[in-house]
TrEMBL record:
Keywords, sorted A to Z: Methyltransferase, Transferase
Single Gene Ontology MF annotation: rRNA (uridine-N3-)-methyltransferase activity
Organism, as annotated: Arabidopsis suecica (Swedish thale-cress)
Keyword Oxidoreductase belongs to the record: no
Highest taxon, organism lineage: Eukaryota
GO CC annotation, single: cytoplasm
One matching Pfam family: BMT5-like
Signal sequence, start to end: none
Protein name: S-adenosyl-L-methionine-dependent methyltransferase
Keyword check for Ribosomal protein: no
GO biological process assignments: rRNA base methylation
Length: 209
């Protein structure tokens, strides 16, 4: 018997979804819980498993539940080189998702500096460059990002245009739409497991031009 399709916001249980830059894997688990399965989800972190255990109290609990749902979990995945990673690059995805990209803790409290903004832009540019090579023909790349200054100076839409992508839709992001998702600071240090206020933010959805 065919399992019925389930949706949570922009994501369907029938989509082949790649999640990158996961922290405590609570966003992945939110999708899996909504779908009742994670057979079509690949969830990745830049951190190693040992680093995750150090940074996030609930990461391994979330990962273990995801595995029971059938999720493909991968660690030490760099968004700047992921299109060359054989465990990922041999597949094509309907949705590639990067929530709240950030270039690291060295820029906490220094978001207004030109160096911080350029480093963040370089992170996003490298992600887009790789992600576009891993999309299904009608696939989408999603970036959830703060829309207020100085984050607005990253120029997400301009970066995407530079990679031959066009904006399909921009949708206001609200945490209440994703039950169980708890965004974390990450990036190392004593405050990695702390929640950060998302403020005004949106999900940008890009497709190939």
């Amino acid at each position: 018997m065919e399992i019925s399709e389930k949706w949570i916001r922009h994501y369907s249980s029938k989509h082949k979804i790649l999640l990158v830059g996961e922290g405590n894997f609570s966003f992945s688990l939110c999708l899996a819980s909504a779908f009742g399965t994670a057979m079509n989800i690949t969830a990745t972190s830049l951190d190693s498993e040992d680093e995750l255990c150090t940074k996030y109290m609930d990461a391994m609990d979330n990962i273990n539940i995801l595995k029971r749902y059938g999720c493909d979990i991968q660690h030490e995945v760099d968004v700047h080189t992921m299109s060359f990673d054989n465990s990922l690059s041999l597949q094509r995805y309907d949705r590639i998702v990067f929530n709240f990209p950030h270039a690291g803790s060295r820029f906490f409290g220094r978001e207004f500096s030109s160096r911080a903004i350029e480093s963040h832009k370089e992170l996003v540019r490298g992600f887009l460059e790789n992600a576009k090579e891993m999309l299904e023909e009608d696939g989408e790349i999603h970036i959830t990002h703060k829309t207020t200054y100085p984050f607005s100076d990253w120029g997400i839409k301009k970066l995407a245009k530079g990679e031959g992508l066009k904006l399909l839709k921009k949708s206001k992001f609200e945490l209440c739409h994703y039950p169980g998702y708890i965004n974390k600071r990450g990036s190392g240090g004593r405050r990695s497991d702390n929640y950060f206020p998302v403020g005004e933010c949106s999900t940008y959805m890009f497709i190939q031009s």
